[in-house]
Design brief:
The chain is an alpha/beta fold. 38% of the residues lie in helices and 13% in strands. The chain has four domains: 182 residues, no CATH class; 337 residues, 3-Layer(aba) Sandwich (Rossmann fold), CATH 3.40.50; 215 residues, Rossmann fold (3-Layer(aba) Sandwich), CATH 3.40.50.12470; 126 residues, Multifunctional 2-oxoglutarate metabolism enzyme, C-terminal domain (Rossmann fold, 3-Layer(aba) Sandwich). It is built from 33 helices and 28 strands. The protein is globular. Belongs to the alpha-ketoglutarate dehydrogenase family.
Length: 1010
């Protein structure tokens, strides 16, 4: 019997487990000539030994019947066993009493050694990054742990872990198909195997990728990094890298010389980031990318603007002039928060490329989902379904990447169909410190990048003081993103040469680190010395390159002194060509009527109540809803859901793309919308009737989001940035839940125009209303939005002809609480028909979705009709205003409670009720008209929210201004409270009855002084 037959008959489960790693597909020899390869059946069980025995017998008959790796293995083992090259197995393994088994022992030892080498290779691939030389300072392990894994051969004595000896170092071993360290060679000595593994995995690059559950992707990465000689650069590439390092470092040096006492959050210590980003852009451009959208925090932003985006240097330098006057209204922002948009030729590829850096506040990672949303929109408008034309790059700080939850939320969106951008290149500037916090106190994970593992993104750690390693890693990262359309992380392990900012003293808290930093030779000098030693450049050429860039900076500095006015419009990251006049002003200050022809309403209603696809089976309950829609259409009425349908549908007809996103928006949290129909018999077969309205309509996107507010609202905000000709809406599951997206609301939506002259038409739909559902499902916190509204409560406005539109243009956002479906219909259409874009906050109803009185007639929506900012009393009280004793102002759902109570008390002639549909900007003109109409009436503001919440604190001073403080406006509603609503149904009803009684008690305010 041959040695391999004996081998095949005694191989057990443990040997097979080592022989066939979990990510390796073994070709089934039975199908070798007749079909595609299959994986080894039950390769983790002991029964696999018989499978290998059969494969060996087949190989004896025909070596071509098995995979070439097995053919090579069987040949090698057979030759060595037959020639007696193997030493006898130790007595402890094979008893001396069985000398006849010597050949069997030799074969067994051969197999064990080969399996050990395969395990060794795998250990380096999995854990080699733990011992890589990543920290340029050499004082801290990048993974926060100096432990050396026991299965890595860092010393000779560790050979024993694999039952290998020093004598085995020069023995030749067959390389498995899961490594490329051999290049064109199939065998290497153990010594050379270890050397090549250390060279690949334990030097200045640390690779984390073996957790990826895709064999092809793992093999791709192995080939990129393991293949011998793969990281080679031409003389021209090295000279380009040196020049880019010169630009990066000398820019920072120039700013430090000219403005030594100014904060700029410079890039010193990670100057290699500039050539790194340029390499990603160059490689991506080479592969067809035409538009790159970047997001980053403030550190290094000015350098990126100057040397990557190519912002004019004089525009950057003039930002440092404290006497510069602002040409634009608004507060503006500090220079290291600003964005930029630039179209230019990429010199490396001679192709056009558009670069935009999205403006970002100091809330660090807040920009991440915004960039992704803008990228998604750009891809959508270009029809770039695979992200081959538009891509995003996100730059992060190490502490923020590990600590900010929005980073995970953004990663979580990366593979969702309606949110994917087909891969993002993440670059982490790993300063190994967060402000003053040691990383050992700042994160629980070994690396700051571990969050990326959740989406199987490969992570490439690299020592930032090795520029060539950085450039190679960045090139591979760009190629990975283009090949697999997946995220990838480049972790630039570097240091921060100065403190948190240029005025900060880091020695207070990190004395040892900064002693080393002060001794650290800058990366530019290191690399220049290296190239000079190699003969790639001369010292004179290097000095000339420095002088050349310094001269460019000095000339730009001279030009910057001529700047008298700072025009922030030059810093727009999302220009809308053709939407505004050349000077950036709206083309008009008028808004056309928002009504539409009745036949359009009827057509939309008909489609909304049908199923456009043949053979599509819907739920019986949904059939009743569709029949109800059809019945309303015949009766020329709409409820809330149908009004929304008609607003969206009419805009689609006009070429306006509509996108609605949020948690459960397809059906609607309250099961009222049903924009996506699901076949009851066929899994994942759906129908969106809204996309079947017109032959040449704009597309409608409605998509359920992940259970995220911060990330998803940021995403939709970014989406709305890309084009003014789209209605982009985000709906909270309940209005209360917007509080976890407060950062986006505060930093981007409320203040975006004031800080960055950035118009944005995002719409927030926030279900709101006190209905006894408890403090977490009642209030969308209208008081917060009103507090941030910028209209002046004490300024008496001039009621010009364009007052309504001018007021909207001057505000930072629009806040409405619609009480009728028609109002909702009109305000959505007005959002697009306005000659500018403002964020729109809509407090949407819950119970009114099905309230029998909350319906509107087609007459309120047809051509010639418009949004009513105020809906005045139109009942008996309006016919005899002089007899009215009380005029109640309110907004939203409480109107229906008030009307019902007024009717039950028979006070229709004594009490008038006026609704504010638009709360901010405040409708001064219409409120004045109403108050003057009812001269003898008491004025009351009634709200269902508690007194310290809701609208009262906002409307009260504005009423006083418009009435010149001649008449008081009394408050009726719930008393002040800490929580926005009660969780007890009975308590809710009692408080409701109490304030309704007060609202209609005509003696309630007698004797009270104002």
């Amino acid at each position: 019997m041959s040695p391999l037959r004996l081998l095949a008959s005694r191989l057990g489960a443990q040997a097979i487990r080592l022989l066939v790693p979990h990510d390796v597909q073994v070709v089934s020899w039975q199908l070798r000539s007749s079909g595609p390869p299959t994986t080894l059946p039950n390769s983790r069980s002991g029964s696999s030994s018989s499978y290998i025995e059969e494969m060996y017998f087949a190989w004896l008959e025909n070596p071509q019947s098995v995979h070439k790796s097995w053919d090579s293995f069987f040949r090698k083992a057979n030759e060595e066993a037959s020639s007696g090259l193997m030493q006898p197995q130790p007595p402890s393994v094979v008893p001396e009493s069985r000398p006849a088994l010597s050949n069997r022992t030799k074969t067994s030892k051969l197999v064990e050694d080969h399996l050990a080498v395969q395990s060794l290779i795998r250990a380096y691939q999995i854990r080699g990054h733990h011992v890589a030389q990543l920290d340029p300072l050499g004082i801290l392990d990048a993974d926060l742990d100096s432990f050396v894994p026991s299965d890595l051969i860092t010393t000779i004595d560790k050979l024993a872990f694999y039952d290998l000896r020093e004598a085995d170092l020069d023995k030749e071993f067959q390389l498995p198909t899961t490594t490329f360290i051999g290049g064109s060679e199939n065998t290497l000595s153990l010594r050379e195997i270890i050397r090549r593994l250390e060279s690949t995995y334990c030097q200045h690059i640390g690779l984390e990728f073996m957790f990826i559950n895709d064999v092809e992707q793992c093999q791709w990465i192995r080939q990129k990094f393991e293949t011998p000689g793969v990281m080679q650069f031409s003389s021209e590439e090295k000279r380009t890298l040196l020049a880019r390092l010169v630009h990066s470092m000398r820019f920072e040096d120039f700013l430090a010389r000219k403005w030594s006492s100014e904060k700029r959050f410079g890039l010193e210590g990670c100057e290699v980031m500039i050539p790194a980003l340029k390499t990603i852009i160059d490689k991506s451009s080479e592969m067809g990318i035409e538009n790159v959208i970047l997001g980053m925090p403030h550190r290094g932003r000015l350098n990126v603007l100057a040397n990557v985006i190519r912002k004019d240097l004089e525009q950057i330098f003039c930002q440092f002039d404290p006497k510069l006057e602002a040409a634009d209204e608004g507060s503006g922002d500090v220079k290291y928060h600003l964005g930029m948009y630039h179209e230019r030729i990429n010199r490396a590829t001679n192709r056009n490329i558009t670069l935009s850096l999205v403006a970002n506040p100091s809330h660090l990672e807040a920009v991440d989902p915004v960039v992704q949303g803008k990228t998604k929109a750009e891809q959508f408008y270009r029809g770039d379904l695979e992200g081959k034309k538009v891509m995003s790059i996100l730059v992060h700080g190490d502490a923020a990447f590990a600590g900010q939850g929005v980073v995970y939320e953004t990663f979580h969106l990366s593979d969702l169909p309606s949110y994917t951008t087909n891969g993002t290149v993440h670059v982490v500037v790993n300063n190994q410190i967060g402000f003053t916090t040691d990383p050992r106190m700042a994160r629980s994970s070994p690396y700051p990048t571990d969050v990326a593992r959740v989406v199987n993104a490969p992570i490439f750690h690299v020592n930032a003081d090795d520029p060539e390693a950085v450039i190679y890693v960045c090139s591979v990262a760009a190629e990975w993103r283009n090949t697999f359309n997946k995220d990838v992380v480049v972790d630039l392990v570097c240091y921060r040469r100065r403190g948190h900012n240029e005025m900060d003293e880091p020695m207070f808290t990190q004395p040892l680190m900064y002693k080393q930093i002060h001794r650290q030779v800058p990366v530019l000098k290191k690399y220049a010395d290296k190239l000079i030693a190699e003969g790639m450049v001369t010292l004179q050429e290097f000095e000339e390159e420095i002088a050349k860039y310094d001269r460019i900076c000095e000339e730009a500095y001279g030009r910057s002194k001529d700047k008298k006015i700072l025009d922030i419009k030059h810093w727009l990251d999302s220009p809308w060509p053709g939407f505004f006049n050349v000077d950036g002003e709206p083309k008009s200050m008028t808004c056309p009527a928002t009504g539409i022809p009745e036949d359009t309403l009827t057509h939309i209603g008909t489609v909304a109540s049908s199923v456009p696809l043949e053979g599509f089976k819907i739920h019986t309950g949904l059939s009743r809803i569709l029949r109800g829609r059809a019945d309303m259409t015949k009766k020329r009425t709409v409820d809330w859901a149908l009004a929304e349908y008609m607003a969206f549908g009419s805009l689609l007809q006009e070429g306006i793309h509509v996108r609605l996103s949020g948690q459960d928006v397809e059906r609607g949290t309250f099961s009222h919308r049903h924009h996506v129909l699901h076949d009851q018999d066929v899994d994942r077969r759906t129908c969106v009737p809204m996309n079947h309205l017109w032959p040449d309509q704009a597309p409608y996107t409605v998509c359920n989001s992940s259970l995220s507010e911060y990330g998803v609202l940021g995403f939709e905000l970014g989406y709305a940035m890309a084009s003014p000709n789209a209605l982009v809406l985000w709906e909270a599951q309940f209005g209360d839940f917007h509080n976890t997206a407060q950062c986006i609301i505060d930093q981007f939506i409320s203040t975006g125009q004031a800080k960055w002259v950035r118009h944005n038409g995002i719409v927030l739909l926030l279900p709101h209303g006190m209905e006894g559902m408890g403090p977490e499902h009642s209030s969308a916190r209208p008081e917060r939005f009103l507090q941030m509204s910028n209209d002046d409560s004490d300024a008496y406005p001039a009621f010009t002809k364009d007052f309504e539109v001018r007021q909207l243009y001057d505000c930072n956002w629009i806040v409405v609480n619609c009480s009728t479906p028609a109002s909702y219909f009109h305000v959505l259409r007005r959002q697009i028909l306005l000659p500018f874009r403002k964020p729109l906050i809509i407090f949407t109803p819950k119970s009114l979705l099905r309230h029998p009185e909350a319906k509107s007639s087609f007459d309120q929506m047809v051509s010639g009709t418009s949004f009513q900012r105020v809906i005045p009393e139109d009942g008996a009280a309006a016919q005899a205003p002089g007899q009215v004793q009380r005029l109640i102002f309110c907004t939203g759902k409480v109107y229906y409670d008030l009307v019902k109570e007024r009717s039950s008390q028979g006070l229709e002639e004594q009490v008038a009720i006026t609704r504010l549909e638009q709360i901010s900007p405040f409708p001064f003109d219409l409120i004045k008209q109403e108050a003057e109409k009812y001269q003898g009436a008491e004025l009351v503001w009634c709200q269902e929210e508690h007194k310290n919440m809701g609208y009262y604190d906002y409307i009260s001073p504005r009423f006083m201004t418009i009435l010149s403080r001649a008449r008081p406006i009394w408050y009726v509603g719930r008393d002040p409270a800490a929580a926005p609503a009660t969780g007890n149904r009975n308590t809710h009803l009692v408080s409701l009855k109490k304030f309704l009684d007060t609202a209609f008690n005509l003696q309630a305010f007698e004797g009270k002084t104002f």
